[in-house]
Design goal:
binds aspartic acid, eight-stranded mixed beta sheet, Glutamine Phosphoribosylpyrophosphate, subunit 1, domain 1, four-stranded antiparallel beta sheet, 332 residues
């Protein structure tokens, strides 16, 4: 009799254990990436659009392969962003825009939704992969954000690769700078931001097979920005954020994303207002921000994906373990 009750008790414990096991099987993952939002013209040369789609497909496929093998969300985010940073098409790493001094200053951040640990770098000039330095800030320091020369000095001790600033140069981004500076001279004023010139920020959000969320974003900022200007990308809660509800990566006019704390707003709307990922993401992009400001990608703990934008296009891609795979530029 006694052993029967012990058995029954053990069974109850076992069932409780089963109930509290992770909701996600190892195969249950979702990923979204972006390569910037802005004034992308439908009549752009088809080979140009094709090049972006090929690059996004390559990055997304890497993320999918890693997730299929059980990789952690953080590792996937970093690896995918590194691929996009290495591609001169995007305004992150190689191919970053020029500031008004004709140099590059890069921003990046990464966040682990499972632990709320995060790291960021701002205004770095010699870091080949800013996203990897952001991750080192997260893992190897007590801080969240390192800027400028201090961040670069830290890179040397953290073993993160440095390059000359002109490694990031591309002829296309130089032409964009010259065009904007000419325009400023002609009008004698600060020309309004030209969203045709500097889209190309990159980001990745992931729900991995163990139910962990993570987000990573990297950028060169805005063409002809002031020396020392820092955008939303390294400001956790503004341009990048992850917690237990959602992982979010933003792209667009950074000052607006900072003013409205956009990335954090998505998860706050879900947590406090009971909104779905879709409703929260649409609200911040279409009700809080102004048309033309940009867009975001987001994934929630159930694997839902949202990718709203209020500019003419946003380079983006999404995939999940259920067979979804898409890469797109314009609204559907
Ligand atoms: N958000 C970036 C910044 O303001 C730029 C972009 O995403 O296009 O630095």
């Amino acid at each position: 009799m006694r052993s029967a009750s012990i058995l029954a008790f053990a069974f109850v414990l076992f069932s409780l254990g089963c109930q509290s096991a992770p909701r996600h099987s190892a195969a249950d993952w979702a990923i979204a990436i972006h390569g910037g939002a802005g004034t992308i013209r439908r009549d752009a040369p088809p080979e140009q659009l094709q090049a972006y789609e090929t690059a996004l497909t390559r990055a997304l496929t890497l993320g999918m392969d890693m997730l299929g093998e059980g990789a952690a969300a953080l590792d996937v985010c970093e690896a995918v962003v590194r691929v996009l940073e290495a591609d001169p098409l995007f305004n992150a790493g190689k191919g970053a825009v020029f500031n008004e001094q004709g140099e590059h200053e890069l921003d990046a951040s990464i966040m682990d939704g499972a632990t709320m640990r995060c790291g960021a770098v701002a205004g770095v000039r010699t870091i080949k992969h800013p996203i990897s330095l952001a991750r080192k800030v997260m893992t190897d320091t007590r801080h969240v954000l390192l800027a400028g020369r201090g961040a670069e000095k830290f890179a040397d001790t953290a073993g993160v690769e440095r390059v000359e600033n002109d490694y990031f140069d591309t002829a296309r981004r130089r032409r964009a700078l010259e065009r904007l500076l000419r325009e400023r001279q002609r009008t004698g004023a600060m020309a309004p931001r030209d969203r045709r010139l500097d889209y190309g920020t990159v980001g990745c959000v992931v729900l991995d097979g163990d139910g962990r969320l993570a987000a990573a974003t990297s950028t060169g900022g805005m063409t002809a920005k002031k020396w020392g200007r820092v955008g939303d990308t390294p400001i956790l809660g503004a341009g990048n954020y992850a917690d237990e509800h959602a992982a979010v990566s933003c792209t667009g006019t950074g000052e607006e994303f900072i003013r409205h704390g956009i990335a954090r707003s998505v998860s706050a709307r879900m947590a406090y207002g009971g909104q779905s990922l879709e409703a929260a993401s649409n609200a911040v992009i279409h009700d809080v921000l102004q048309p033309g400001d940009g867009g975001l990608i987001a994934v929630d703990h159930s694997g839902n994906i949202a990718m709203p934008f209020n500019s003419s296009g946003m380079y983006r891609g999404a995939a999940n373990s259920g067979g979804r795979f898409e890469v797109a530029v314009f609204p559907k």
